[in-house]
Design a protein that fits this description.
By secondary structure, the protein is α+β, with helices and mostly antiparallel strands. Strand 1 (44-47), helix 2 and strand 2 form a beta-alpha-beta unit. It starts with 17 loop residues before the first helix and ends in a 25-residue tail after the last strand. 15% of the residues are buried. The protein has a two-stranded parallel sheet. 29% of the residues lie in helices and 9% in strands. The protein is built from 2 helices and 2 strands; from the N terminus they run αβαβ. It comes from Trichonephila clavata (Joro spider). This is PiggyBac transposable element-derived protein 3.
């Protein structure tokens, strides 16, 4: 069970700062905005879908004592995903 702490209603292009969108992408910028109200004294673990997960936002989150678990899209890994072994013998959905 999780705790509902803060929410953000998307109101268009100005919902999050342009600088954050350029650095982290829209999903990362939203994640940055939402964790801004979480106290940094205690470790927090954030679970997201692939839209909010990305390598670019991870450094910021770790600096705020926030760890992230989420599915990463291979086109957002700066080539890191290509170094992982291919699972050619695993059936889709396994």
């Amino acid at each position: 069970m999780g705790l509902f702490r803060f929410f953000l209603i998307y109101t268009g292009a100005d919902t999050v700062p342009v600088e954050d969108k350029q650095l982290y992408g829209l999903g990362g910028a939203v994640a940055k905005h939402l964790v801004g109200t979480i106290p940094t004294e205690k470790l927090t673990h954030l679970f997201t879908n692939r839209y909010f997960a990305g390598l670019a936002i991870l450094d910021y989150l770790v600096s705020r004592n926030v760890y992230l678990t989420g599915t990463e899209m291979t086109n957002r890994t700066n080539g890191v995903a290509e170094s992982f072994p291919k699972h050619t013998c695993v059936e889709r959905g396994s």
